[in-house]
């Protein structure tokens, strides 16, 4: 039988698997490889770290099918010339078609000590480890969050509302959530003021030591330091000898495969696309990859142009009752975006659990 190997059961891998299962040809076996036995809602890892949700509530089982095999393992390397994927246990898996959806890792931007002395919310295991450390802090313990993007803001808000901690949020720009309209940024900053979260704008983190953040060269003591200041493609992808953009993401054809190899596709955070990485983008891309694969299986010609991936917007949480968002270029703040996000998560769980 031919083998389609999917590396990573994140948003892209999960959407792809769900989309192709009804259309699998009889002579194809699908192998999904992931470090964990479930799909996890990664956008909510900040709540795992804060301890306001349990990891079980973010688990979604992978779809079951006689032609689908799930392997819980870690990928060691990809051999594009020999069409093989090597696992950490030393076993190779051959493929006819490959989907690379290995996700991202923290990008420490060469800040000395950041990789050693900061905590992370990039994986479920790291988020749980971060929670364990935060849980052990005394009342009024000092927490530094490096990075004022969506992840950093949501984590800071969740901690400020649920814990008796002193929270400081560092961002290198003139404002947190720089990709959002001014209305949203101002609302979030006012919310932080009411919760006594200190926001350090125009920060320049030059070094991290144990319990010390050096901002513009000056040391500031903290009991816990969490890094949310950027991502980069998985190390396995970074090691591949293929053409990439300045951020290390792989350039693709209009059909989402390598320009030189129509049997190797890349989905999600490792793909060089026209939008910043997001769960929504990964899903949209996965749907198009599924369309390409199904068309090939059915002997259909692919369209000369693929339609643009439509993104509906972005939603963020400020604790349990407040939120913010940008939907169809409309800025939203307050309770409504939080309710919408809660509904989207509920719908996502129900849809994928079926």
TrEMBL record:
Entry's Gene Ontology molecular function annotations: oxidoreductase activity
InterPro entries given in the database record: FAD/NAD-bd_sf, FAD/NAD-binding_dom, NADH-Q_oxidoreductase
Endpoints of the signal sequence: none
Class of this enzyme: oxidoreductase
Domain of life of the organism encoding this protein: Bacteria
Entry EC no(s): 1.6.5.-
Keyword Flavoprotein: yes
Cofactor: FAD
The entry's keywords: FAD, Flavoprotein, Oxidoreductase
UniProt cross-references to Pfam families, sorted A to Z: Pyr_redox_2 (PF07992)
Domain FAD/NAD(P)-binding: 3-286
Keyword hit for Flavoprotein: yes
Gene3D superfamilies attached to this UniProt entry: 3.50.50.100
Family: Belongs to the NADH dehydrogenase family.
Protein name, entry field: NAD(P)/FAD-dependent oxidoreductase
Originating species: Niallia hominis
């Amino acid at each position: 039988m031919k083998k389609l190997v999917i590396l990573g059961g994140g948003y892209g891998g999960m959407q792809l698997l769900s989309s192709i299962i009804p259309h699998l040809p009889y002579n194809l076996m699908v192998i999904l490889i992931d470090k964990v036995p479930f799909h996890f809602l990664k956008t909510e890892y900040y709540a795992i770290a804060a301890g306001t949700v349990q990891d079980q509530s973010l688990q979604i089982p992978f779809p079951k099918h006689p032609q689908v095999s799930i392997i819980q393992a870690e990928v060691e390397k990809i051999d594009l010339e020999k069409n093989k994927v090597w696992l950490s246990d030393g076993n190779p898996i051959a493929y006819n078609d490959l989907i690379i959806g290995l996700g991202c890792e923290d990008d420490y931007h060469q800040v000395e000590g950041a990789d050693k002395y900061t905590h992370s919310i990039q994986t479920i295991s790291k988020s749980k480890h971060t929670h364990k450390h935060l849980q052990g802090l005394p009342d009024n313990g000092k927490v530094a969050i490096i990075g004022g993007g969506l992840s950093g803001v949501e984590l800071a808000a969740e901690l400020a509302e649920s814990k008796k901690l002193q929270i400081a949020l560092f961002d290198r720009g003139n404002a947190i959530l720089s990709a959002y309209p001014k209305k949203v940024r101002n609302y979030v900053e006012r919310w932080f003021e009411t919760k006594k979260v200190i926001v350090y704008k125009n920060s320049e983190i030059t070094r991290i030591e144990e319990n010390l953040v050096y901002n513009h060269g000056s040391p500031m003591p903290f009991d816990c330091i969490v890094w949310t200041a950027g991502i980069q493609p998985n190390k396995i992808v970074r090691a591949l000898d293929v053409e990439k953009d300045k951020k290390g993401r792989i350039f693709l054809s209009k059909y989402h495969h390598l320009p030189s190899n129509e049997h190797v596709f890349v989905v999600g955070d490792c793909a060089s696309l026209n939008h910043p990485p997001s769960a929504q983008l990964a899903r949209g891309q996965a749907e198009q990859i599924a369309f390409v694969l199904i068309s090939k299986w059915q002997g259909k010609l692919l369209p000369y142009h693929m339609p643009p991936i439509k993104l509906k917007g972005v939603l963020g949480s400020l604790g349990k009752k407040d939120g913010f968002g940008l939907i169809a270029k409309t800025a939203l703040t307050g309770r409504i975006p939080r309710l919408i996000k809660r509904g989207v998560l509920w719908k996502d769980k129900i849809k994928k659990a079926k």
